[in-house]
Design brief:
CATH class of the largest domain: Mainly Alpha
Protein name: MerR HTH family regulatory protein
Pfam family, one: MerR_1
Shape: elongated
Structural class: mainly alpha
Helix content: 55-70%
Keywords: DNA-binding, Transcription, Transcription regulation
Distance between the termini: 51 Å
Strand order of the largest sheet: 3-5-4
GO molecular function, one term: DNA-binding transcription factor activity
CATH architecture of the largest domain: Orthogonal Bundle
Number of strands: 5
Largest sheet: 3 strands, antiparallel
Number of domains: 2
Strand content: 5-15%
């Protein structure tokens, strides 16, 4: 496409696109003439990514350039987009969840046959309101992650069996969280109710971050050292 079409697709001025190229944020396009060049769809996707990193994460351009360089392969770019989708700072507070099974499936992209399975595995749940199932924003995010896993190749074709793995995760994680909650209630037994609620909210957010980084730490360790199951 011509640069005029690229401007139309992205909403970014021509001067800005030229600056991105000079700064190394975009690769040099293929020349089709002395004053013309051809831009493919990858330029549209990369410009959208730059704007997301600026607007949603407030990254300066030098940092964005570093992020793009470190995620230049297609697989790493896919993982970057996945992280951006599920770890936007304010999304947790702005999301309100959805009402009804059909709305949940539409919001997540999940196939209908998987909804009862995810409930059975304790990965998602819902409350009933006026005869309809109401799903939280966390449930919506979990549904989206399950879809993203399948699209990224983590599925039966790669010998991943969700009915075994995810059911075990759901049960074990439920048990871990219950232990933590019981321990918290015991530790704050003599604390005033309002203060206890505030402590619970802070603890909830901190533990969520802790679980995320613990998983990344040990998964990376097992992969790098070859200590995981099935690596003998």
């Amino acid at each position: 496409m011509k640069i005029s079409e690229l401007v139309k697709c992205t909403g970014v001025p021509k001067q800005t696109i030229h600056y991105y190229i000079r700064a190394g944020l975009l690769p040099k396009p293929e020349k089709t003439g002395s004053n013309s060049a051809d831009y493919d769809q990858s330029y549209v996707e990369r410009i959208h990514l730059i704007k997301e990193l600026q607007n949603d994460f407030f990254f300066p351009l030098p940092t964005i350039k570093k992020v793009l360089w470190e995620h230049r392969s297609a697989s790493k770019q896919a993982m970057l987009k996945l992280r951006m989708e599920f770890f936007r700072p304010m999304e947790h507070y702005l999301g309100t969840g959805v009402k009804g099974d059909e709305a949940f499936l539409e919001a997540t992209g999940l196939a209908a046959r998987w909804l009862p399975k995810l409930k059975e595995w304790n990965l998602i749940g819902s409350r009933t309101e006026n005869g309809e199932s109401v799903y939280s924003q966390d449930d919506v995010s979990i549904g989206k992650v399950m879809v993203a896993m399948a699209k990224s190749g983590i599925n039966r074709k790669s010998s991943f069996h969700p009915e075994i793995t995810m059911s075990a995760i759901g049960k074990q994680f439920t048990d871990i969280v219950k232990i933590l909650i019981d321990d918290f209630h015991q530790a704050t037994e003599d604390t005033k109710n309002q203060e206890k609620q505030e402590l619970a909210l802070r603890g909830h957010e901190v533990m969520g971050v802790l679980f995320y980084h613990l998983y990344r730490k040990y998964a990376r360790q097992f992969i790098e050292e070859g200590d995981g199951p099935g690596t003998n």
